[in-house]
Amino acid sequence: MTMSSSSASSSRKSRISASVSNVMYTNAVYFPNYRVYKGDTPAQLNYGCINHVYYAFASVSPDGVVLLSDVWADGQAPCDGVEGALGSLMHLKQRHPHLRVVLSIGGAGSPEIFPVVASDPLLRDNFARSALGLIEASGLDGIDIVWEYPCSEQQGADFLALLAATRTYLSEDQYLLTAALPANKAVLACINLGEAALYLDFINLTAYDFFGSWTPRSGHQAQLYAVGGKDNETSASAGVGCLMQAGVPGKKILLGIPLFGRSFLHATGPGQKFKGVGGEEGAFEYKDLPRRGTKEQVDKRAVAAQCVGGDGGFVTYDNPDTVKMKAAFCKQKGLGGLFYWCAPADAKDSKRSLIASGFRALHSS
């Protein structure tokens, strides 16, 4: 190991302990590289209330090697006075010593490639080795695996083997290893979650997209509690319960908050038939909610915000009130904190910002 890399690792360790001592809870955000094309940059975010950025998404080649997915956006586009969004994040890390930047691997294209790579010992080794090489070269703090999602017992076992292989290269005292999993009992049942937690620093529970254009009826897309009377209805609290009952320590769970709303046209609330969806592919960015001419309401039983009418019909989302309630739930359950998808869609006004609201609620007594 060269002198520079060993000093880098010790500074990374001290940075880890410094960030933990200053902040009790994690408040993490995803920054997708395609947002660069919309004029969004990492420096536009408020790092006074963010301690982890998940930079999404790197891709995986058929031989298991982890690659940056957009060389221009990641390393060349003019961004905050430097080259590329990753370059900007590296500069921001120097200005904000508590900030940890994690490379998120996978995403939408991952259901095809991950089962192949995870089932083969050689490809798993390629994955782990190349992931380490990429984060060392970029000065990153770890990786986040977003396989959407292991959906059989065999894939669940292969997922664990991939985590084990990755952990052999990414030492625990130096690098973060996290994974995104859904608040979906059928998917979670495929994985030995207690064992997964031995390898992972955090499980990012994607506690949203419960309802959308693909479901037969409208519903609150990120409800904390199911109040539809159906015991098996998906909710964030049920997802957390699944993880904890399986032996995942609460402090290793980050609860996901969507920075977008789901639209159901010709519906006025949850549990209704609807005809079509508004917005872009059925979604509106949080900063564009509530829709013009509508009134925002909060369903305190489900813990969900909504607006009805205008061009969105029934739109279900989170607002500062629901995020405060979710933060209180995190504290009550001893969870690690919150994460948000995706940061550039948040409101700019700090009173309205969900990222700021969540941070304040997590760290208020």
Automatic annotation (TrEMBL):
Pfam families linked to this entry: Glyco_hydro_18
Bilayer-spanning residue ranges: none
UniProtKB keywords: Hydrolase
Protein name from the UniProt record: chitinase
Top-level taxonomic group: Eukaryota
EC class: hydrolase
Record organism: Coniochaeta ligniaria NRRL 30616
A biological process term (GO) from this entry: chitin catabolic process
